Amino acid sequence: MRLLVVCLGNICRSPVAEGVLRARIEASSLAGRIELDSAGTGDWHVGDPPDRRAIANAAEHGVDISGLRARQLAALDYRDFDWLLCADKANLRDVRARAPKGARARSALLLDWCNTVTDGEVPDPYTGGPAQFEHVFQLLDRAADGAIARLREELGLRG
Ligand code: 4NP
């Protein structure tokens, strides 16, 4: 199962989501079964590490995202991933608008997919402060619980 988390810049929300989901999945019975990546709909930060506030906040929670580098969503992602999981509704709209003909990947709001909140968005913390980054982390940490439950179900695993 291959999951791609998508936000706007791929330096705040989606790298944190990638880091938290990877850490939680690898510590679960799903270890080794799920491939994760993240991307941005925009190209402003391609090649950059995550925002330093996102790195610092994740590190406070024991998650190291400093080695990640931003990339832009590409046409091949629609072939290579099972799910494109979006941080907010604008991201989801952009992802759907860019879908190439015959795209295989399905798309959803990340928090919906994880059964965390219906119609829920991960708010962009880029222009905010530490409290906004902490809120994003908490949302994504809860989402990881839901992701693990859903993945276990989809892969027919118990416990
Ligand atoms: P992200 O946050 O989508 O969570 O990575 C943003 C990062 C950069 C910009 C916007 C949002 N930007 O406009 O550069």
From TrEMBL:
Is-annotated flag, keyword Hydrolase?
Answer: yes
The cross-references to SUPFAM superfamilies, in alphabetical order and at most eight, read: Phosphotyrosine protein phosphatases I (SSF52788)
Stretches assigned to the Phosphotyrosine protein phosphatase I domain: 1-150
Q: What InterPro entries does its record include?
A: LMW_PTPase, Ptyr_pPase, Ptyr_pPase_sf, Tyr_phospatase_low_mol_wt
The catalytic site is made up of: 7, 13, 124
The EC number(s) given in the record are 3.1.3.48
User: Is Flavoprotein there in the keyword field?
Assistant: no
**Superkingdom classification of source:** Bacteria
- Identify one Pfam family in the record: LMWPc
Q: What are this entry's molecular-function GO terms?
A: protein tyrosine phosphatase activity
Enzyme class label: hydrolase
The entry's keywords: Hydrolase, Protein phosphatase
Q: Which PANTHER family match?
A: LOW MOLECULAR WEIGHT PHOSPHOTYROSINE PROTEIN PHOSPHATASE, LOW MOLECULAR WEIGHT PROTEIN TYROSINE PHOSPHATASE
Q: Which family does it belong to?
A: Belongs to the low molecular weight phosphotyrosine protein phosphatase family.
Q: What is this protein called?
A: protein-tyrosine-phosphatase
Q: Which organism is it from?
A: Lysobacter capsici AZ78
